[in-house]
Amino acid sequence: MTPQAFFAAAAAFHVFVVIVGALFAWRWSRPARAALEARSWTFRLALETLGLAVAVYAVSLMAPFAANLDHPRRLHVGEISGRLMGQALFVEGLILALLLARASQRARRNPRAMILATAALGLAALYVESYRLGPFRLELSQHSLSLVSASDTRRLRILHVTDIQTPAIGAHEERALRLGLSARPDLIVMTGDYVQDALGRATEERAAHDLRQLLSRLELDAPLGVFATEGDVGPACREVFAGTVVRCLTDESVVVRVPGGPSVKLTGLSRWRGRERNPALLRALLAAGPPADRQIVLSHSPDFVDALLQPVDLALAGHTHGGQFVLPFFGPLVTASRLPRRFASGLNDHRGTPLHVSRGVGMERGFAPPVRFFCAPEVCVLDARL
Predict the structure, then answer these.
(1) How far, rounded to the nearest angstrom, does the alpha carbon of residue 196 sit from its chain's CA centroid?
(2) What confidence tens digit (pLDDT) does each residue in 4-15 have?
(3) What does the pLDDT look like over 279-327, one tens digit per residue?
(4) What are the structural domains of the chain?
């Protein structure tokens, strides 16, 4: 879908929402409705609000089809529906809550009016946190792990950067890379999704060019090198990092040696191998190439760990964005991974393999809702004892 078609779909959707929202507000602002006894008012309002939500959701699914009939295979229906529903909730929904609060106040139902006004305030606060603050509350996350039990070991400091995933390189991306470099890593790894591709080839090419310029300006490098894997969106890894010090590993391995310490084999998985379900194929890939004392596997998706027949020393991945929208005491609503929710971010043990999944620098953009809630973006430093 083109941006123009998206705006047409959004316009049609909001025309519908405004019309049905106005009718809903008019119906519930009539004195007889506003003055209903509390139990009856609550039940009938909840029932009709549910019906309104279902109708709005149905239109959010149909609008992309109506605006993009000439390219039915590129509709991004789920992403666009989520974005449109978010817009409806935080714009028309907020206005509707305020109108109902005003109607209740005129009917001298002040407790009811206070509840509705508080709901409107809560929606406004959720919008500010999810859209305006959360996506830019960048963190430097640090983890320590030991890959051996011996006391005489060497430290390997790894900077893990993933999911920059932006249509335009700017201050946020520069701050993330500067923050990571300030940790003085020995090794830098990037695990996919560097620029967003949903807004057209020209946009992604410009973003990739600006990313290369940023890497050059920051002199991004590390003593043991900078390595990257393929992601799901944007140009191929080698195209993104052409002319830079970044080496892309696509179903291939390279060995680096920690000064005074062991050799480390870095294996980068392609997009499909990162989701491998065949243990034999994965084992053959990981066994290929030169031998080394330790093995670290880089992948965009963390799902491949489910197919490991034997643990590896460390697995690094991104893709999940930590879920982006995380509910307290529950966790992420969606992780885009077949692994359990607890593996959506952080350093965890998966059947003997230390698995680190970064929440990423960016987030879903393009036609998807650009939100983060209780899921701050991050760059990660891992201090591994080898």
Answers:
(1) 12
(2) 888 888 999 999
(3) 999 999 999 988 999 999 999 999 999 999 999 999 999 999 999 999 9
(4) 3-134 (no CATH), 139-385 (3.60.21.10)
